[in-house]
Write a structure and sequence with these properties.
Elements lengths: L1 E4 L11 H33 L5 H4 L2 E4 L8 E5 L9 H10 L7 H8 L7 E5 L13 H13 L7 H6 L5 E6 L2 E8 L6 E10 L10 H27 L3
Antiparallel strand pairs: 1-3, 2-3, 4-7, 5-6, 6-7
Helix pairs in contact: 1-7
Length: 239
């Protein structure tokens, strides 16, 4: 997801040679000033719209600066993440009002044959969430490791040796299919719903007007920034 910030320089078509000479430099300065202003407003909007957004989300809006040659600055959402899903993937449904993409965890479950086709994962009521409202990457990895080790209802080697069962398992309880966590011990065994499988891709309404914010700022500030940059370029140019 990105927004390109460009300038209409047609008003300089009949300008003097000196003005035209300074135009590429002044344009790049104006474009970059506006692009970084957009980034700041987008970050502020993320803080207002989402509850306790993680630092990865808050810092997900980046800028590719304009040069005198390119004449274009880009504001975009980070499309890579060291762990988990990239911000561009999980923010996209909130930006363009569409069904969300598969999460990395869902893809891993499908690959392991544990998540039925056409079903998606949502938090269960007993899921331990961090302050950002998410299950931590570490817990996801632990769940996936145990489920893979026990796929096909087979105990892992460690379980067989110790006579114990893994904490997490896929099953249907009270009509709900999902990932459950064993609790209660031998005397009072129970299971807690950690992740529930639902039919149909979750749909998110548009909450984050990423493109609208960028367009509004560009429309208001590009002319002002260009005039300022041109004035500065002419005053400081070498005659």
């Amino acid at each position: 997801m990105d927004v390109s910030v460009k300038l209409d320089t047609s008003k300089f078509d009949k300008a003097s040679a000196e003005l035209k000479k300074q135009l590429p430099y002044a344009s790049s300065v104006a474009l970059n000033n506006v692009a970084f202003r957009i980034r700041g407003e987008e970050r502020a909007a993320i803080g207002r719209i989402f509850t306790n957004p993680a630092n990865l989300t808050l810092n997900s809006v980046l800028v590719k600066k304009a040069t005198k040659r390119s004449g274009v600055a880009k504001v975009f959402i980070r499309d890579q993440a060291p762990n988990g899903t990239a911000p561009s993937e999980y923010l996209e449904p909130s930006v363009i009002d569409e069904n969300r993409a598969d999460k990395r965890f869902e893809r891993a479950l499908r690959h392991a044959g544990l998540l039925p086709r056409g079903m998606y994962v949502v938090h269960g009521k007993e899921a331990k969430l961090n302050k950002h409202g998410n299950i931590s990457v570490g817990i996801y990895k632990r769940i996936l490791a145990e489920l893979r080790a026990n796929s096909g209802s087979k105990k892992s080697r460690a379980d067989s040796e110790q006579g114990t069962k893994s904490k997490y398992f896929v099953g249907k309880i009270n009509g709900k299919l999902g990932i459950w966590k064993r609790a209660g011990g031998k005397r009072n065994p129970t299971a807690k719903p950690i992740l529930i499988f639902l039919k149909g891709r979750p749909n998110y309404r548009q909450r984050f007007p990423f493109i609208g914010i960028a367009q509004g700022i560009a429309r208001r500030h590009l002319p002002i920034e260009l005039d300022k940059a041109m004035d500065h370029a002419i005053k400081t140019s070498k005659r």
